[in-house]
Structures are given as structure tokens and as C-alpha cells.
């Protein structure tokens, strides 16, 4: 699944809405809109729609992307049809809890993978985004009493997570970046950046990448009903980096650290 970050304005501050759903959150030229694949039997498609609605999502919060054979949730989380099939076959459904709590997705990263998550930053990633990615990786890696560890690798043939810049037209409106959730014990394998926001400040970029990398290890948006509450974490954490909006002051909170310490 993929998660995204979006950008908003309010009377007090400029926010960027980022990055949810089981795996795992800006198009300037075109939004990702519901697009039903004529080749997909209507009864099967309805099965997916029903599942997503049962998790607490509204139809306005997800869209089917025919090219990707996946649903885009919250603008920045990608949920492939194959992953929904796996949930349904396993009889699993996300627990719904009150808003604002620290939450996780269904799947997490296994201990072997989590101790050495190899990140390949594609050459098309600008220096500012590259620096932000490396900084965010270090911040998650430095959480104490937790085995999660990210490291950058130089080989495009041997990595766990790819970070790359993709065409603006492939993003939902105002989405800064999106990421995949973990699946079958492996970290979400892709973080995509929208070049429309290359002029973001260094702090915004770092927070965006911190948020997206959080998705790759199974953290969901605190405000999403679809996530599973992480027992033992604060029931509210207003400054969590995992909120679907991020401003320059967001950073890992004690709640964010507690969440990964409990999970890993």
C-alpha cells in the first residue's frame, strides 16, 4: 500500500499533507481518479470496494488506478489488488479505533529484514531530497531499544526500498510523496517523490521522508480509522511525524519512538 503527503494552507501556517493503509502519504497535471478496469469483473471490483469501506474509508478517500492495478488511499498509500486478496483470503480485517492514536498497518517488517533495510536512492533524486532521505533514515535508525535500521546502498540491483522521483502526472493533486507499506515481512519497497515540490525547504523535505519511511515499516496515519491502534502508545500525539500533514516543525516524537519500540 502507498501513503502520500499533501499540501494545505490555513490561517496560521502552511502545511503539507503527506502520506496509509495496509502496507504502507500531488498531481499538478491530473489527479488519480477512480478508474474502473473494464477487464476486471464487476463482482470482483465490488469486493475490493466493500473491503475498503469496511475498514472505515469513505469512497472519496480512495481511487482505483488501472495502470497500477491498485487502489490509491489517502492520496499517498498504494494498496495493490493482490494485497487486498491476501487480506481477504486470510480473513483479516483492520481494527477500527478512535482518531489520533498511534497506529500500524496489518503487516510489519520481520526481524531479519528490519535489522538491515537497504535503501537505494535513484540518481534522479535531487541533492536536497537525497540529503533529506539520508537524514530521515538516520533518525529512524537511531531510535533506541528498536532493531529497525536503514542504510543506503549504491547498487540498483540489490536493495529493499527504492527512493525515486516520478512524473507529477502520476500523483494525486497536491501529493508530495507516497510510499508502500510492508508486505510478507518485507519493508515497503518504494518511496516516490513528486518533483512539483522540489522547492520545499530542507526541513519540509526531511519530515516528508521521515513520514514516508515510517510507512515502509508499517506505521499508519494517526488520524486514519483504517489503522490498528498500537497498544501502549499515547492515544493522542498532536506532533507525530506520521500525521498526513507535515510542517517544518514536525519531527519524531516520543510517541513515534514508542510505537516502533513496541513493534520492533
TrEMBL record:
Pfam families: Peptidase_M57. It comes from the Bacteria. This is Peptidase metallopeptidase domain-containing protein. The lineage of its organism: Bacteria, Pseudomonadati, Bacteroidota, Cytophagia, Cytophagales. One of its GO terms (biological process) is proteolysis. One of its GO terms (molecular function) is metallopeptidase activity. Transmembrane segments: none annotated. It comes from Fulvivirga sediminis. InterPro entries: MetalloPept_cat_dom_sf (IPR024079), Peptidase_M10/M27/M57 (IPR024653), Peptidase_Metallo (IPR006026). Residues 106-264 form the Peptidase metallopeptidase domain.
Amino acid at each position: 500500500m502507498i501513503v502520500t503527503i499533501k499540501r494545505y494552507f490555513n490561517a496560521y501556517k502552511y502545511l503539507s499533507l503527506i502520506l496509509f493503509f495496509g502496507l504502507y502519504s500531488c498531481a499538478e497535471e491530473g489527479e488519480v481518479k477512480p478508474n474502473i478496469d473494464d477487464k476486471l469483473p464487476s463482482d470482483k471490483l465490488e469486493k475490493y470496494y466493500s473491503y475498503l469501506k469496511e475498514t472505515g474509508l469513505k469512497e472519496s478517500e480512495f481511487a482505483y488506478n488501472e495502470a497500477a492495478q491498485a487502489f490509491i488511499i489517502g492520496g499517498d498509500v498504494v494498496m495493490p489488488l493482490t494485497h487486498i486478496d491476501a487480506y481477504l483470503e486470510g480473513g483479516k480485517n483492520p481494527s477500527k479505533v478512535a482518531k489520533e492514536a498511534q497506529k500500524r498497518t496489518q503487516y510489519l517488517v520481520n526481524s531479519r529484514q528490519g535489522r538491515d533495510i537497504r535503501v537505494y536512492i535513484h540518481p534522479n533524486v535531487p541533492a536536497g531530497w537525497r540529503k533529506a532521505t539520508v537524514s530521515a533514515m538516520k533518525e529512524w535508525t537511531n531510535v533506541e531499544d528498536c532493531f529497525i535500521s536503514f542504510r543506503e546502498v549504491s547498487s540498483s540491483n540489490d536493495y529493499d526500498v527504492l527512493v525515486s522521483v516520478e512524473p507529477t502526472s502520476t500523483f494525486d493533486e497536491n501529493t508530495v510523496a507516497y510510499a508502500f507499506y510492508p508486505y510478507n515481512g518485507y519493508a515497503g519497497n518504494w518511496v516516490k517523490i513528486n518533483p512539483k515540490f522540489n522547492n520545499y525547504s530542507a526541513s519540509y523535505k526531511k519530515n516528508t521522508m521521515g513520514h514516508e519511511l515510517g510507512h515502509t515499516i508499517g506505521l499508519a496515519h494517526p488520524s486514519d480509522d483504517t489503522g490498528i491502534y498500537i497498544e501502549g502508545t499515547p492515544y493522542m500525539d498532536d506532533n507525530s511525524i506520521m500525521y498526513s500533514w507535515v510542517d517544518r516543525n514536525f519531527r519524531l516524537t516520543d510517541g513515534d519512538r514508542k510505537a516502533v519500540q513496541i513493534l520492533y
